[in-house]
Design brief:
This protein is of the alpha+beta class. It is 40% helix and 16% strand. It contains 18 helices and 19 strands. A seven-stranded mixed beta sheet has the order 2-1-4-3-5-16-8. A hairpin with a 2-residue loop joins strand 11 and strand 12. Helix 5 runs antiparallel to helix 17, helix 12 runs antiparallel to helix 15 and helix 17 runs antiparallel to helix 18. 46% of the residues are buried.
Length: 529
């Protein structure tokens, strides 16, 4: 069975790669002001109608409905007027975004002015930066008059997007304590669990009961404990519960990649056990990451490991769709946002994703200024309200106190503003300062969990060094994939301990040994650590 699943996953990966390679030399299909059409990066540099600047930006696509819903034309009109900018949107599927980014960075004739990155700086981005592919934003971000928002960027976070002393990207700010564990409250009550899990053993017991003790009360064997897709973020989070660390860990005065620690293997064995025991779906490694959250919404799974706002959205779905509690049908189902397990969870780096202004796309300083002007204006309260809350009278109303009250009648992918937040850096504020949101119970729970997470979140101690590592720029992306693939294979039973050891040796042989050496040299040279 699992051989078939793994072969299917590999076939899907190869098929995706073939599609990407086939499209590499073609002109992009962009979305300009909400309309799809064949365009090139050069077209976005010409003057726009009505005196508006014209920029192009590549962003991940999660739903396929981004700025294409009812009333989306109103959203487009509002951001264009506020920023005095027309945007050529180039959207690429999130599942293959990192691979596509690598191809785009090699396609100088078809380069968007702004390229969005996900997560932290990747090796291919660092390598491109070292070759001069991106504008140095250091001096631009000192211009408080032109960029009143972006100029307030946190200098400590900017270090993580600094290569060879140059700020080569603008980060998308995030809460430190976003990641953690959540579960469906009424399911826990149904199977006799009255306290949130504190340890990994507690989590296992909950997942077991959610799978085998009919938590929805329908008398059918149709539930499982933890929702998983091929998005492996939950694995990174769960590993920290075992003391693994966050990608790298400090041990005896040295920085060590986490896969070389005994704690990492302990975490892998635990995750493999929940797989072997049927507490997650057998085909998780092939499930489209764009559906992540759907299994909890549909009542197929009861636990969720990811960002706290993801758990909040599941809770809001229950409210929107009047999903009844299985223990009290007079009430709506809810989520309990636990956060840390074993008093640990994964920290964000203070940002999640970044914006690169490319020299091949933004050919002049005026182009750079247009890009930064747009990104700065999108951090104004008006645009953050538009991106995060939508349109007054459509997705939200204001109460007598002038606070935003969400209607919550639409799924995220159905809202007119879906996708607009992909161009908000959230600098200097993570939420609008005015008008403020009338907070629902789910939002209050989210904020409490984030505050709790922040106190125990595990940071990546090598983050700044990786951004300036020549070896990481050379081999980092490739060797990271070796470990990611081996981890999935191990969990699914395709390889054993010896197989993982072989992958770890391959990681070393392909440049990992040089990477560890260089990272530790940079670590020892850092007098500010």
């Amino acid at each position: 069975m699992m051989k078939k699943v793994w072969k299917k996953a590999m076939a899907m990966t190869l098929a995706g790669s073939m599609v990407l390679l086939a499209g590499c030399g073609s002109k992009t299909t962009g979305q300009t002001s909400g309309e799809s059409g064949q365009t090139t990066a050069g077209a976005a540099q010409s003057g726009a109608e009505g005196g508006k600047a014209n920029i192009s930006i590549m962003v991940p696509q999660f739903y396929g409905t981004e700025l294409k819903n009812d009333h989306s034309d109103e959203v487009i009109k509002q951001y264009e007027e506020h920023t005095n900018t027309q945007v050529e949107w180039r959207r690429e599927a999130n599942d293959t975004y990192k691979e596509k980014l690598g191809l785009v960075l090699m396609d100088k004739d078809n380069m968007p002015m702004i390229v969005t990155g996900s997560g932290d700086l990747t090796a291919n981005v660092v390598d491109a930066a070292k070759k001069g592919a991106f504008w140095d934003l250091t001096e631009f971000l000192k211009d408080t008059e032109s960029y009143p928002n972006l100029s307030k960027a946190d200098p400590n976070v900017l270090k993580a997007v600094t290569v060879d002393g140059k700020v080569i990207a603008l980060y998308r700010a995030r809460e430190i304590g976003r990641y953690g564990f959540s579960y469906r409250t009424d399911w826990a009550e149904k199977v006799g669990i009255t306290e949130p899990p504190k340890t990994a053993e507690d989590v296992y017991n909950m997942l077991y009961k959610f799978t085998y003790e009919d938590p929805d009360g329908n008398g059918k064997d149709d539930t499982y404990g933890l929702e998983m897709t091929k998005y492996v973020g939950p694995i990174d989070i769960m590993q920290t519960w075992f003391g693994t660390g966050n990608k790298w860990v400090e041990q005896d005065g040295k920085l060590v990649p986490v896969h070389q620690t005994k704690e990492y293997r302990e975490a892998l064995k635990w995750i493999k056990k929940i797989y072997d025991d049927g507490l997650i779906r057998k085909d998780w490694a092939t499930v489209d990451s764009g559906t992540f959250g759907d299994a909890c919404k549909k009542g197929e799974a009861g636990a969720f490991v990811d960002v706290m706002d993801g758990a909040k959205r599941i809770w809001n779905y229950y409210i929107q769709n009047d999903v009844k509690s299985v223990v009290d049908p007079t009430k709506t189902a809810t989520m309990t946002l636990v956060g840390p397990v074993n008093d640990k969870t994964l920290a964000t780096s203070g940002f999640n994703g970044f914006y690169l202004i490319t020299k091949a796309g933004a050919k002049t300083e005026d182009d750079v200024k247009n890009c930064l002007h747009f990104l700065d204006k999108m951090c104004d309260d008006e645009m953050m309200v538009l991106a995060d809350y939508g349109l007054e009278g459509v997705t939200y109303d204001k109460n007598e106190a002038g606070k935003v009250v969400m209607r919550n009648k639409l799924e995220v992918q159905q809202t007119p503003n879906v996708g607009l937040n992909s161009v908000i850096a959230y600098i200097p504020n993570l939420t609008p300062t005015s008008p403020t949101l009338e907070k629902q119970e789910s939002t209050i729970a989210q904020e409490e969990a984030i505050a709790k997470n922040k106190k125990v979140a595990i940071y990546n101690p090598a983050l700044g060094y990786l951004a300036n590592s020549a070896v990481n720029a050379e081999v980092g992306t490739d060797i990271e994939q070796i470990i990611d693939d081996a981890r999935t294979q191990y969990i699914c039973g395709q390889i054993d301990d010896a197989g993982f050891d072989a992958a770890a040796k391959q990681w070393l042989d392909r440049g990992g040994d040089r990477l560890v050496k260089e990272i530790n040299e940079l670590y020892q040279q850092d007098t500010a650590k």
